[in-house]
Amino acid sequence: MKFDIKELPNVFGKLSNIGTIFKKEIRSYFNSAVAYVVMVVFLAIVGWMYTSSMFLINVASLRMMFELIPLVFLFLVPAITMRLLAEEKKAGTIELLATKPLHDWEIVTGKFLAAWALIGIALLPTLVYYITVAFLGEIDNGPVIGGYLGLMLMAGVFVAIGLLASSVTENQIVAFIVGLLLMFVFYMLDKVLIFVPDFMTSVVEYLGIDFHFSNIARGVIDSRDIIYFVSLLGFTLYCSVVSLERRKW
What we know:
Layout lengths: L7 H24 L2 H24 L5 H19 L4 H6 L1 H7 L4 H20 L3 H10 L4 H27 L4 H17 L12 H7 L1 H9 L5 H23 L4
Helix pairs in contact: 1-6, 2-3, 2-6, 3-8, 3-9, 6-8, 6-12, 8-9, 8-11, 8-12, 11-12
């Protein structure tokens, strides 16, 4: 496979377009109260639930925090993503974006990266819990690294799902509800195996996002889990692009 050096300006142009959308969305989060409310609510809920149980288990571990955060993500992520495309479509600004030298996939990618980055920023202060636990006792760093990696991968998939929900409607509340339901289904799949026929158990379990997150959170980085997250993320973003392109049909 040969790469033509003449294609470089085109590649950098596309990256520049994505970066422009990314910066626009990040600024909109921090120029309004959205980013600050998200981080305060997220840290307050996780902090209260984690610290209230940390001393009960009397173990130097962040396992409980890694079990709590996905539940918070189910409500937090749809709240972040519900406006990304729905608001643009309702206000008609999505058409203005389309008149510029931008492709739909560049718009989707830029907005996705901005929302994903916001969640990553919200996760950073939780490192205080790691420092605190490390002072209280000896902590295994493997599950900690795996836990944060798993959270970021899960957050990426949830953001992609929320973006898809936002692309199919102009109503932000509908986008929130659809996003929440889709995320909840993927989160619960590996928890309802007793109701699934035996021949479908392994398939349904594999589709469950918490099944793969739990594997990574144990500190075991398996290529099958990484492939699952990357594939689901990529497929959902592709569906968002197709959904956004419907306005041209």
